[in-house]
Amino acid sequence: MANGIERPLDLLNSSKGKEILVQLKNEKQMVGTLLAFDIHVNIVLDNAKEMANGEVKRSIGLTFLRGDTIIFISPASSVEKK
Amino acid sequence: MANGIERPLDLLNSSKGKEILVQLKNEKQMVGTLLAFDIHVNIVLDNAKEMANGEVKRSIGLTFLRGDTIIFISPASSVEKK
Amino acid sequence: MANGIERPLDLLNSSKGKEILVQLKNEKQMVGTLLAFDIHVNIVLDNAKEMANGEVKRSIGLTFLRGDTIIFISPASSVEKK
Amino acid sequence: MANGIERPLDLLNSSKGKEILVQLKNEKQMVGTLLAFDIHVNIVLDNAKEMANGEVKRSIGLTFLRGDTIIFISPASSVEKK
Amino acid sequence: MANGIERPLDLLNSSKGKEILVQLKNEKQMVGTLLAFDIHVNIVLDNAKEMANGEVKRSIGLTFLRGDTIIFISPASSVEKK
Amino acid sequence: MANGIERPLDLLNSSKGKEILVQLKNEKQMVGTLLAFDIHVNIVLDNAKEMANGEVKRSIGLTFLRGDTIIFISPASSVEKK
Amino acid sequence: MANGIERPLDLLNSSKGKEILVQLKNEKQMVGTLLAFDIHVNIVLDNAKEMANGEVKRSIGLTFLRGDTIIFISPASSVEKK
Lengths: 82, 82, 82, 82, 82, 82, 82
What we know:
- Chain A has 1 helix and 5 strands.
- The first copy, chain A, is mainly beta.
- In chain A, 7% of the residues lie in helices and 51% in strands.
Protein backbone atom coordinates (compact mmCIF):
# COMPACT_ATOMS: atom_id res chain seq x y z
CA MET A 1 0.00 0.00 0.00
CA ALA A 2 1.38 3.45 -0.93
CA ASN A 3 0.86 6.37 1.40
CA GLY A 4 1.66 10.04 1.23
CA ILE A 5 1.71 10.34 -2.57
CA GLU A 6 -0.37 13.40 -3.42
CA ARG A 7 1.44 14.40 -6.61
CA PRO A 8 3.39 12.22 -9.07
CA LEU A 9 6.78 13.69 -8.13
CA ASP A 10 6.18 12.65 -4.50
CA LEU A 11 7.11 9.11 -5.56
CA LEU A 12 10.46 10.33 -6.84
CA ASN A 13 11.01 12.33 -3.67
CA SER A 14 10.43 9.29 -1.49
CA SER A 15 12.80 7.26 -3.72
CA LYS A 16 15.84 9.49 -3.16
CA GLY A 17 18.78 7.44 -1.98
CA LYS A 18 17.11 4.23 -3.12
CA GLU A 19 17.60 2.03 -6.15
CA ILE A 20 15.20 2.68 -9.02
CA LEU A 21 14.43 1.13 -12.40
CA VAL A 22 14.07 3.56 -15.30
CA GLN A 23 12.45 2.38 -18.52
CA LEU A 24 13.70 4.41 -21.49
CA LYS A 25 11.92 5.14 -24.77
CA ASN A 26 14.79 3.45 -26.65
CA GLU A 27 13.78 0.05 -25.19
CA LYS A 28 16.64 -0.01 -22.69
CA GLN A 29 16.52 0.28 -18.91
CA MET A 30 18.71 2.02 -16.38
CA VAL A 31 19.03 0.93 -12.77
CA GLY A 32 20.78 2.99 -10.12
CA THR A 33 20.44 5.00 -6.93
CA LEU A 34 18.33 8.15 -7.33
CA LEU A 35 20.30 11.19 -6.19
CA ALA A 36 18.29 14.10 -7.63
CA PHE A 37 15.43 15.02 -9.96
CA ASP A 38 13.70 18.16 -11.22
CA ILE A 39 10.25 19.06 -12.59
CA HIS A 40 11.31 18.02 -16.11
CA VAL A 41 11.96 14.55 -14.63
CA ASN A 42 15.64 14.95 -15.43
CA ILE A 43 17.33 12.66 -12.90
CA VAL A 44 20.77 11.83 -11.55
CA LEU A 45 21.60 8.21 -10.76
CA ASP A 46 24.58 6.82 -8.89
CA ASN A 47 26.02 3.39 -9.73
CA ALA A 48 23.91 3.38 -12.88
CA LYS A 49 23.80 0.32 -15.09
CA GLU A 50 22.33 0.27 -18.59
CA MET A 51 20.33 -2.87 -19.27
CA ALA A 52 18.78 -4.48 -22.32
CA ASN A 53 16.80 -7.71 -22.43
CA GLY A 54 17.45 -8.26 -18.72
CA GLU A 55 21.25 -8.09 -19.01
CA VAL A 56 23.67 -5.39 -17.86
CA LYS A 57 25.17 -3.77 -20.97
CA ARG A 58 27.30 -1.06 -19.38
CA SER A 59 28.18 0.17 -15.89
CA ILE A 60 28.14 3.92 -16.21
CA GLY A 61 28.35 5.11 -12.62
CA LEU A 62 27.11 8.66 -12.03
CA THR A 63 24.62 9.64 -14.73
CA PHE A 64 22.49 12.62 -15.69
CA LEU A 65 19.44 11.29 -17.56
CA ARG A 66 17.15 13.59 -19.56
CA GLY A 67 13.50 13.39 -18.56
CA ASP A 68 12.17 13.35 -22.11
CA THR A 69 13.79 9.95 -22.74
CA ILE A 70 11.89 8.24 -19.90
CA ILE A 71 8.70 6.14 -20.03
CA PHE A 72 8.43 5.10 -16.38
CA ILE A 73 10.36 5.01 -13.09
CA SER A 74 9.83 2.42 -10.33
CA PRO A 75 11.50 1.80 -6.98
CA ALA A 76 13.56 -1.32 -7.60
CA SER A 77 12.17 -2.87 -4.42
CA SER A 78 8.70 -2.92 -5.94
CA VAL A 79 9.70 -4.59 -9.23
CA GLU A 80 9.03 -8.30 -9.18
CA LYS A 81 12.06 -10.35 -10.02
CA LYS A 82 11.34 -13.10 -12.52
CA MET B 1 -24.03 7.37 -18.47
CA ALA B 2 -21.16 9.42 -17.03
CA ASN B 3 -21.94 12.35 -14.80
CA GLY B 4 -19.89 15.10 -13.25
CA ILE B 5 -17.18 15.21 -15.91
CA GLU B 6 -16.80 18.84 -16.92
CA ARG B 7 -13.12 18.76 -17.85
CA PRO B 8 -11.00 15.82 -19.08
CA LEU B 9 -8.94 15.58 -15.87
CA ASP B 10 -12.18 15.09 -13.90
CA LEU B 11 -12.17 11.49 -15.13
CA LEU B 12 -8.72 10.95 -13.65
CA ASN B 13 -9.79 12.58 -10.41
CA SER B 14 -12.77 10.26 -10.06
CA SER B 15 -10.49 7.28 -10.82
CA LYS B 16 -8.14 7.83 -7.87
CA GLY B 17 -7.82 4.70 -5.81
CA LYS B 18 -9.28 2.60 -8.62
CA GLU B 19 -7.71 0.31 -11.17
CA ILE B 20 -7.04 1.91 -14.57
CA LEU B 21 -5.79 0.75 -17.96
CA VAL B 22 -3.15 2.94 -19.59
CA GLN B 23 -2.41 2.53 -23.29
CA LEU B 24 1.16 3.62 -24.09
CA LYS B 25 2.53 4.96 -27.38
CA ASN B 26 5.00 2.06 -27.48
CA GLU B 27 2.11 -0.41 -28.03
CA LYS B 28 2.22 -1.71 -24.44
CA GLN B 29 -0.33 -1.24 -21.67
CA MET B 30 -0.04 -0.63 -17.96
CA VAL B 31 -2.69 -1.58 -15.45
CA GLY B 32 -2.63 -0.49 -11.83
CA THR B 33 -4.29 1.56 -9.12
CA LEU B 34 -4.20 5.32 -9.80
CA LEU B 35 -2.61 7.14 -6.85
CA ALA B 36 -1.83 10.58 -8.28
CA PHE B 37 -1.72 12.64 -11.48
CA ASP B 38 -0.81 16.18 -12.55
CA ILE B 39 -1.73 18.52 -15.41
CA HIS B 40 0.94 16.96 -17.65
CA VAL B 41 -0.91 13.66 -17.18
CA ASN B 42 2.11 12.26 -15.38
CA ILE B 43 0.62 9.55 -13.15
CA VAL B 44 1.58 7.26 -10.29
CA LEU B 45 0.24 3.71 -10.27
CA ASP B 46 0.35 1.17 -7.47
CA ASN B 47 0.57 -2.56 -8.21
CA ALA B 48 1.38 -1.71 -11.82
CA LYS B 49 1.69 -4.45 -14.39
CA GLU B 50 3.12 -3.95 -17.87
CA MET B 51 1.17 -5.83 -20.51
CA ALA B 52 1.67 -6.64 -24.19
CA ASN B 53 -0.70 -8.57 -26.43
CA GLY B 54 -3.01 -9.20 -23.48
CA GLU B 55 -0.34 -10.84 -21.29
CA VAL B 56 1.39 -9.55 -18.17
CA LYS B 57 5.06 -8.95 -19.03
CA ARG B 58 6.32 -7.49 -15.77
CA SER B 59 4.95 -6.68 -12.33
CA ILE B 60 6.53 -3.35 -11.48
CA GLY B 61 4.66 -2.26 -8.38
CA LEU B 62 4.76 1.48 -7.66
CA THR B 63 5.38 3.39 -10.89
CA PHE B 64 5.79 6.99 -12.02
CA LEU B 65 4.63 7.17 -15.66
CA ARG B 66 5.38 10.19 -17.86
CA GLY B 67 2.31 11.77 -19.44
CA ASP B 68 3.88 12.21 -22.87
CA THR B 69 4.09 8.42 -23.33
CA ILE B 70 0.32 7.91 -22.92
CA ILE B 71 -2.39 7.55 -25.59
CA PHE B 72 -5.42 6.89 -23.38
CA ILE B 73 -6.47 6.03 -19.84
CA SER B 74 -9.64 4.14 -18.91
CA PRO B 75 -11.09 2.95 -15.62
CA ALA B 76 -10.50 -0.83 -15.71
CA SER B 77 -14.12 -1.40 -14.69
CA SER B 78 -15.30 0.11 -17.96
CA VAL B 79 -13.04 -1.96 -20.24
CA GLU B 80 -14.87 -4.91 -21.72
CA LYS B 81 -13.14 -8.20 -21.07
CA LYS B 82 -12.92 -10.36 -24.16
CA MET C 1 -24.10 23.38 -43.80
CA ALA C 2 -22.19 24.32 -40.63
CA ASN C 3 -23.16 27.44 -38.74
CA GLY C 4 -21.84 29.13 -35.65
CA ILE C 5 -18.26 27.84 -35.87
CA GLU C 6 -16.01 30.83 -35.28
CA ARG C 7 -13.08 28.99 -33.72
CA PRO C 8 -11.97 25.36 -34.18
CA LEU C 9 -12.94 24.31 -30.65
CA ASP C 10 -16.53 25.45 -31.35
CA LEU C 11 -16.99 22.22 -33.30
CA LEU C 12 -16.01 20.19 -30.25
CA ASN C 13 -18.31 22.27 -28.07
CA SER C 14 -21.29 21.63 -30.33
CA SER C 15 -20.42 17.89 -30.37
CA LYS C 16 -20.73 17.40 -26.59
CA GLY C 17 -23.08 14.56 -25.82
CA LYS C 18 -22.86 13.28 -29.39
CA GLU C 19 -20.95 10.43 -30.96
CA ILE C 20 -17.63 11.38 -32.56
CA LEU C 21 -14.96 9.65 -34.60
CA VAL C 22 -11.35 10.29 -33.52
CA GLN C 23 -8.52 9.44 -35.90
CA LEU C 24 -5.31 8.69 -33.96
CA LYS C 25 -1.72 9.11 -35.11
CA ASN C 26 -1.16 5.38 -34.53
CA GLU C 27 -3.50 4.53 -37.43
CA LYS C 28 -6.35 3.48 -35.13
CA GLN C 29 -9.69 5.19 -34.54
CA MET C 30 -11.81 5.74 -31.46
CA VAL C 31 -15.55 6.23 -31.56
CA GLY C 32 -17.58 7.32 -28.55
CA THR C 33 -19.73 10.01 -26.99
CA LEU C 34 -17.84 13.26 -26.31
CA LEU C 35 -18.19 14.24 -22.65
CA ALA C 36 -15.45 16.85 -22.19
CA PHE C 37 -12.45 18.48 -23.86
CA ASP C 38 -9.84 21.14 -23.05
CA ILE C 39 -7.62 23.54 -25.01
CA HIS C 40 -4.95 20.82 -25.45
CA VAL C 41 -7.67 18.79 -27.23
CA ASN C 42 -7.50 16.21 -24.45
CA ILE C 43 -10.95 14.61 -24.56
CA VAL C 44 -13.13 12.24 -22.54
CA LEU C 45 -15.29 9.75 -24.40
CA ASP C 46 -18.05 7.55 -23.03
CA ASN C 47 -18.78 4.13 -24.54
CA ALA C 48 -15.50 4.36 -26.42
CA LYS C 49 -14.56 1.69 -28.91
CA GLU C 50 -11.09 1.33 -30.42
CA MET C 51 -11.19 0.49 -34.11
CA ALA C 52 -8.68 -0.61 -36.73
CA ASN C 53 -9.36 -1.30 -40.39
CA GLY C 54 -13.09 -0.65 -39.85
CA GLU C 55 -13.46 -3.26 -37.09
CA VAL C 56 -14.02 -2.82 -33.35
CA LYS C 57 -10.89 -4.03 -31.55
CA ARG C 58 -11.78 -3.21 -27.95
CA SER C 59 -14.71 -1.71 -26.06
CA ILE C 60 -13.06 0.52 -23.49
CA GLY C 61 -15.98 2.48 -22.05
CA LEU C 62 -15.02 5.75 -20.36
CA THR C 63 -11.73 7.04 -21.77
CA PHE C 64 -9.38 9.97 -21.30
CA LEU C 65 -7.57 10.52 -24.62
CA ARG C 66 -4.48 12.75 -24.88
CA GLY C 67 -4.77 15.52 -27.45
CA ASP C 68 -1.28 15.03 -28.86
CA THR C 69 -2.22 11.58 -30.19
CA ILE C 70 -5.08 12.92 -32.35
CA ILE C 71 -5.10 13.76 -36.09
CA PHE C 72 -8.76 14.69 -36.53
CA ILE C 73 -12.16 14.57 -34.83
CA SER C 74 -15.50 14.39 -36.68
CA PRO C 75 -19.10 14.16 -35.52
CA ALA C 76 -20.03 10.55 -36.34
CA SER C 77 -23.24 11.77 -37.99
CA SER C 78 -21.20 13.53 -40.67
CA VAL C 79 -18.97 10.57 -41.55
CA GLU C 80 -20.22 8.77 -44.62
CA LYS C 81 -20.75 5.07 -44.07
CA LYS C 82 -19.30 2.94 -46.85
CA MET D 1 -0.21 37.42 -58.01
CA ALA D 2 -1.15 37.37 -54.31
CA ASN D 3 -1.95 40.62 -52.56
CA GLY D 4 -2.68 41.56 -49.01
CA ILE D 5 -0.72 38.73 -47.35
CA GLU D 6 1.40 40.33 -44.65
CA ARG D 7 1.53 37.38 -42.25
CA PRO D 8 1.21 33.65 -42.98
CA LEU D 9 -2.20 33.31 -41.31
CA ASP D 10 -3.58 35.99 -43.68
CA LEU D 11 -3.72 33.28 -46.36
CA LEU D 12 -5.92 31.14 -44.13
CA ASN D 13 -8.11 34.13 -43.33
CA SER D 14 -8.69 34.87 -46.99
CA SER D 15 -9.48 31.16 -47.60
CA LYS D 16 -12.43 31.01 -45.19
CA GLY D 17 -15.50 29.64 -46.89
CA LYS D 18 -13.39 28.28 -49.75
CA GLU D 19 -12.14 24.81 -50.58
CA ILE D 20 -8.61 24.04 -49.42
CA LEU D 21 -6.15 21.17 -49.78
CA VAL D 22 -4.37 20.10 -46.59
CA GLN D 23 -1.26 17.92 -46.82
CA LEU D 24 -0.83 15.83 -43.66
CA LYS D 25 2.39 14.46 -42.16
CA ASN D 26 0.98 10.93 -42.49
CA GLU D 27 1.17 11.18 -46.30
CA LYS D 28 -2.59 11.68 -46.69
CA GLN D 29 -4.48 14.78 -47.81
CA MET D 30 -7.72 16.36 -46.70
CA VAL D 31 -9.85 18.55 -48.94
CA GLY D 32 -12.80 20.57 -47.66
CA THR D 33 -14.23 24.02 -47.04
CA LEU D 34 -12.31 26.02 -44.43
CA LEU D 35 -14.66 27.19 -41.68
CA ALA D 36 -12.29 28.23 -38.89
CA PHE D 37 -8.64 28.19 -37.77
CA ASP D 38 -6.58 29.35 -34.80
CA ILE D 39 -2.96 30.35 -34.14
CA HIS D 40 -1.96 26.69 -33.63
CA VAL D 41 -3.21 26.11 -37.20
CA ASN D 42 -5.94 23.84 -35.83
CA ILE D 43 -8.65 24.05 -38.51
CA VAL D 44 -12.27 23.06 -39.07
CA LEU D 45 -13.29 21.80 -42.51
CA ASP D 46 -16.78 21.21 -43.86
CA ASN D 47 -17.46 18.47 -46.42
CA ALA D 48 -14.01 17.07 -45.71
CA LYS D 49 -12.68 14.17 -47.73
CA GLU D 50 -9.59 12.17 -46.80
CA MET D 51 -7.45 11.34 -49.82
CA ALA D 52 -4.47 9.10 -50.49
CA ASN D 53 -2.67 8.67 -53.81
CA GLY D 54 -5.16 11.00 -55.51
CA GLU D 55 -8.23 8.99 -54.49
CA VAL D 56 -10.98 9.77 -51.98
CA LYS D 57 -10.65 7.31 -49.09
CA ARG D 58 -13.37 8.58 -46.77
CA SER D 59 -15.98 11.34 -46.74
CA ILE D 60 -15.87 12.64 -43.20
CA GLY D 61 -17.98 15.80 -43.37
CA LEU D 62 -17.32 18.30 -40.58
CA THR D 63 -13.80 17.83 -39.20
CA PHE D 64 -11.57 19.34 -36.53
CA LEU D 65 -7.96 18.86 -37.67
CA ARG D 66 -5.01 19.36 -35.31
CA GLY D 67 -2.43 21.85 -36.56
CA ASP D 68 0.58 19.72 -35.58
CA THR D 69 -0.38 17.07 -38.16
CA ILE D 70 -0.22 19.51 -41.10
CA ILE D 71 2.60 20.11 -43.58
CA PHE D 72 0.94 22.65 -45.89
CA ILE D 73 -2.42 24.21 -46.78
CA SER D 74 -3.35 25.54 -50.23
CA PRO D 75 -6.50 27.07 -51.66
CA ALA D 76 -7.86 24.29 -53.91
CA SER D 77 -8.32 26.81 -56.72
CA SER D 78 -4.56 27.31 -56.91
CA VAL D 79 -3.62 23.62 -57.06
CA GLU D 80 -2.97 22.49 -60.60
CA LYS D 81 -5.03 19.50 -61.62
CA LYS D 82 -2.99 16.83 -63.38
CA MET E 1 28.99 37.91 -49.93
CA ALA E 2 26.08 38.39 -47.54
CA ASN E 3 25.57 41.72 -45.86
CA GLY E 4 23.14 43.02 -43.32
CA ILE E 5 22.23 39.67 -41.75
CA GLU E 6 22.33 40.17 -38.00
CA ARG E 7 19.69 37.61 -37.04
CA PRO E 8 18.61 34.44 -38.86
CA LEU E 9 15.19 35.82 -39.82
CA ASP E 10 16.91 38.73 -41.62
CA LEU E 11 17.64 36.30 -44.47
CA LEU E 12 13.93 35.53 -44.81
CA ASN E 13 13.10 39.23 -44.70
CA SER E 14 15.51 40.01 -47.52
CA SER E 15 14.05 37.10 -49.54
CA LYS E 16 10.49 38.43 -49.62
CA GLY E 17 9.20 38.62 -53.16
CA LYS E 18 11.98 36.31 -54.36
CA GLU E 19 12.06 32.63 -55.23
CA ILE E 20 13.24 30.33 -52.45
CA LEU E 21 13.99 26.63 -52.04
CA VAL E 22 12.54 24.97 -48.93
CA GLN E 23 13.87 21.58 -47.84
CA LEU E 24 11.23 19.67 -45.88
CA LYS E 25 11.75 17.00 -43.23
CA ASN E 26 9.78 14.53 -45.36
CA GLU E 27 12.60 14.52 -47.96
CA LYS E 28 10.66 16.71 -50.41
CA GLN E 29 11.36 20.28 -51.47
CA MET E 30 9.13 23.25 -52.19
CA VAL E 31 10.11 26.10 -54.48
CA GLY E 32 8.11 29.30 -54.76
CA THR E 33 8.04 33.04 -54.16
CA LEU E 34 8.22 34.01 -50.49
CA LEU E 35 5.27 36.26 -49.58
CA ALA E 36 5.27 36.15 -45.76
CA PHE E 37 6.80 34.46 -42.71
CA ASP E 38 6.52 34.61 -38.93
CA ILE E 39 8.73 33.82 -35.94
CA HIS E 40 7.67 30.14 -36.03
CA VAL E 41 9.10 30.08 -39.59
CA ASN E 42 5.61 29.42 -40.93
CA ILE E 43 5.78 30.77 -44.49
CA VAL E 44 3.51 31.58 -47.42
CA LEU E 45 4.74 30.82 -50.93
CA ASP E 46 3.24 31.89 -54.24
CA ASN E 47 3.54 29.70 -57.34
CA ALA E 48 4.73 26.86 -55.11
CA LYS E 49 5.89 23.60 -56.63
CA GLU E 50 6.48 20.43 -54.64
CA MET E 51 9.59 18.57 -55.79
CA ALA E 52 11.11 15.17 -55.12
CA ASN E 53 14.34 13.80 -56.56
CA GLY E 54 14.78 16.96 -58.62
CA GLU E 55 11.41 16.68 -60.39
CA VAL E 56 8.25 18.77 -60.00
CA LYS E 57 5.59 16.54 -58.41
CA ARG E 58 2.74 19.05 -57.99
CA SER E 59 2.09 22.70 -58.77
CA ILE E 60 0.21 23.93 -55.73
CA GLY E 61 0.16 27.70 -56.21
CA LEU E 62 -0.41 29.70 -53.03
CA THR E 63 0.70 27.68 -50.01
CA PHE E 64 0.86 28.06 -46.24
CA LEU E 65 3.76 25.89 -45.00
CA ARG E 66 4.20 25.05 -41.31
CA GLY E 67 7.58 25.99 -39.89
CA ASP E 68 8.05 22.75 -37.97
CA THR E 69 8.22 20.76 -41.22
CA ILE E 70 11.21 22.72 -42.55
CA ILE E 71 14.93 21.82 -42.45
CA PHE E 72 16.36 24.75 -44.40
CA ILE E 73 15.42 27.67 -46.67
CA SER E 74 17.68 29.15 -49.36
CA PRO E 75 17.22 31.93 -51.90
CA ALA E 76 16.86 30.04 -55.20
CA SER E 77 19.41 32.37 -56.79
CA SER E 78 22.10 31.03 -54.47
CA VAL E 79 21.44 27.33 -55.10
CA GLU E 80 23.84 25.88 -57.64
CA LYS E 81 22.11 24.21 -60.55
CA LYS E 82 23.57 20.83 -61.35
CA MET F 1 42.57 24.80 -25.43
CA ALA F 2 39.28 26.73 -25.47
CA ASN F 3 39.00 29.94 -23.56
CA GLY F 4 36.21 32.38 -22.90
CA ILE F 5 33.33 29.90 -23.30
CA GLU F 6 31.03 30.45 -20.33
CA ARG F 7 27.76 29.47 -22.00
CA PRO F 8 27.14 27.12 -24.93
CA LEU F 9 26.14 29.90 -27.34
CA ASP F 10 29.53 31.57 -26.74
CA LEU F 11 31.04 28.99 -29.08
CA LEU F 12 28.64 30.04 -31.85
CA ASN F 13 29.38 33.69 -31.19
CA SER F 14 33.12 33.13 -31.53
CA SER F 15 32.50 31.17 -34.76
CA LYS F 16 30.79 34.02 -36.62
CA GLY F 17 32.44 34.64 -39.95
CA LYS F 18 34.17 31.26 -39.80
CA GLU F 19 33.46 27.95 -41.48
CA ILE F 20 31.47 25.48 -39.40
CA LEU F 21 30.31 21.89 -39.72
CA VAL F 22 26.66 21.21 -38.82
CA GLN F 23 25.51 17.65 -38.20
CA LEU F 24 21.80 17.27 -38.96
CA LYS F 25 19.33 14.79 -37.48
CA ASN F 26 18.63 13.46 -40.99
CA GLU F 27 22.18 12.01 -41.16
CA LYS F 28 23.43 14.76 -43.50
CA GLN F 29 25.91 17.54 -42.79
CA MET F 30 26.07 21.17 -43.80
CA VAL F 31 29.31 23.15 -44.04
CA GLY F 32 29.42 26.90 -44.54
CA THR F 33 30.33 30.25 -43.04
CA LEU F 34 28.30 31.17 -39.96
CA LEU F 35 26.64 34.56 -40.43
CA ALA F 36 24.01 34.61 -37.67
CA PHE F 37 22.28 32.53 -34.99
CA ASP F 38 19.58 32.95 -32.35
CA ILE F 39 18.67 31.33 -29.05
CA HIS F 40 16.70 28.58 -30.85
CA VAL F 41 20.01 27.71 -32.59
CA ASN F 42 18.45 28.74 -35.92
CA ILE F 43 21.48 29.69 -38.00
CA VAL F 44 22.33 31.35 -41.31
CA LEU F 45 25.21 29.96 -43.33
CA ASP F 46 26.90 31.50 -46.38
CA ASN F 47 28.41 29.30 -49.11
CA ALA F 48 26.60 26.32 -47.59
CA LYS F 49 27.18 22.84 -48.94
CA GLU F 50 25.03 19.84 -48.07
CA MET F 51 27.09 16.70 -47.53
CA ALA F 52 26.36 13.02 -47.12
CA ASN F 53 28.88 10.24 -46.58
CA GLY F 54 31.73 12.72 -46.91
CA GLU F 55 30.68 14.00 -50.34
CA VAL F 56 29.18 17.34 -51.38
CA LYS F 57 25.60 16.70 -52.52
CA ARG F 58 24.44 20.26 -53.23
CA SER F 59 25.89 23.75 -53.11
CA ILE F 60 23.08 25.84 -51.68
CA GLY F 61 24.76 29.18 -50.95
CA LEU F 62 22.96 31.33 -48.39
CA THR F 63 20.87 29.14 -46.08
CA PHE F 64 18.56 29.55 -43.11
CA LEU F 65 18.75 26.32 -41.07
CA ARG F 66 16.20 25.52 -38.34
CA GLY F 67 17.73 24.81 -34.95
CA ASP F 68 15.53 21.80 -34.21
CA THR F 69 17.11 19.85 -37.08
CA ILE F 70 20.64 20.10 -35.63
CA ILE F 71 22.60 17.57 -33.54
CA PHE F 72 25.92 19.41 -33.23
CA ILE F 73 27.93 22.34 -34.60
CA SER F 74 31.75 22.48 -34.76
CA PRO F 75 34.21 25.03 -36.08
CA ALA F 76 35.52 23.41 -39.26
CA SER F 77 39.09 24.19 -38.19
CA SER F 78 38.71 21.84 -35.22
CA VAL F 79 37.38 18.87 -37.17
CA GLU F 80 40.07 16.36 -37.97
CA LYS F 81 40.32 15.58 -41.65
CA LYS F 82 40.56 11.88 -42.32
CA MET G 1 29.14 7.78 -2.97
CA ALA G 2 28.10 11.10 -4.59
CA ASN G 3 27.82 14.18 -2.46
CA GLY G 4 26.63 17.68 -3.07
CA ILE G 5 24.16 16.85 -5.87
CA GLU G 6 20.90 18.55 -4.94
CA ARG G 7 19.60 19.14 -8.46
CA PRO G 8 20.36 17.23 -11.68
CA LEU G 9 22.39 20.05 -13.24
CA ASP G 10 24.74 19.96 -10.22
CA LEU G 11 26.33 16.87 -11.77
CA LEU G 12 27.09 18.81 -14.95
CA ASN G 13 28.46 21.71 -12.92
CA SER G 14 30.85 19.44 -11.04
CA SER G 15 31.94 17.87 -14.37
CA LYS G 16 33.17 21.11 -15.94
CA GLY G 17 36.70 20.74 -17.18
CA LYS G 18 36.45 16.96 -16.99
CA GLU G 19 35.92 14.30 -19.63
CA ILE G 20 32.32 13.15 -20.07
CA LEU G 21 30.48 10.51 -22.08
CA VAL G 22 27.33 11.67 -23.86
CA GLN G 23 24.86 9.09 -25.17
CA LEU G 24 22.89 10.47 -28.11
CA LYS G 25 19.40 9.49 -29.28
CA ASN G 26 20.86 8.51 -32.66
CA GLU G 27 22.71 5.57 -31.03
CA LYS G 28 26.09 7.31 -31.17
CA GLN G 29 28.20 8.62 -28.30
CA MET G 30 30.33 11.71 -27.87
CA VAL G 31 33.27 11.92 -25.49
CA GLY G 32 35.05 15.16 -24.66
CA THR G 33 35.86 17.73 -22.02
CA LEU G 34 32.80 19.62 -20.75
CA LEU G 35 33.34 23.38 -21.12
CA ALA G 36 29.80 24.78 -20.69
CA PHE G 37 26.12 23.86 -20.43
CA ASP G 38 22.77 25.62 -20.04
CA ILE G 39 19.32 24.76 -18.66
CA HIS G 40 18.31 23.18 -22.00
CA VAL G 41 21.27 20.79 -21.49
CA ASN G 42 22.93 22.28 -24.58
CA ILE G 43 26.62 21.61 -23.96
CA VAL G 44 30.02 22.54 -25.34
CA LEU G 45 32.73 19.88 -25.47
CA ASP G 46 36.42 20.31 -26.20
CA ASN G 47 38.42 17.56 -27.92
CA ALA G 48 35.14 15.85 -28.80
CA LYS G 49 35.15 12.46 -30.46
CA GLU G 50 32.08 10.86 -32.03
CA MET G 51 31.87 7.15 -31.29
CA ALA G 52 29.77 4.26 -32.53
CA ASN G 53 29.97 0.64 -31.41
CA GLY G 54 32.90 1.49 -29.15
CA GLU G 55 35.06 2.95 -31.95
CA VAL G 56 36.04 6.56 -32.64
CA LYS G 57 34.31 7.63 -35.87
CA ARG G 58 35.37 11.29 -36.05
CA SER G 59 37.51 13.70 -34.04
CA ILE G 60 35.52 16.91 -34.10
CA GLY G 61 37.31 19.09 -31.55
CA LEU G 62 35.23 21.94 -30.13
CA THR G 63 31.53 21.09 -30.39
CA PHE G 64 28.19 22.66 -29.53
CA LEU G 65 25.73 19.81 -28.86
CA ARG G 66 21.96 20.42 -28.68
CA GLY G 67 20.36 19.19 -25.47
CA ASP G 68 17.36 17.62 -27.16
CA THR G 69 19.58 15.03 -28.86
CA ILE G 70 20.93 13.66 -25.56
CA ILE G 71 19.82 10.59 -23.57
CA PHE G 72 22.38 10.66 -20.75
CA ILE G 73 25.67 12.24 -19.66
CA SER G 74 28.25 10.57 -17.39
CA PRO G 75 31.64 11.62 -16.09
CA ALA G 76 34.05 9.42 -18.08
CA SER G 77 35.86 8.49 -14.88
CA SER G 78 32.73 6.72 -13.63
CA VAL G 79 32.12 4.65 -16.76
CA GLU G 80 33.45 1.15 -16.42
CA LYS G 81 35.82 0.18 -19.19
CA LYS G 82 35.09 -3.23 -20.62
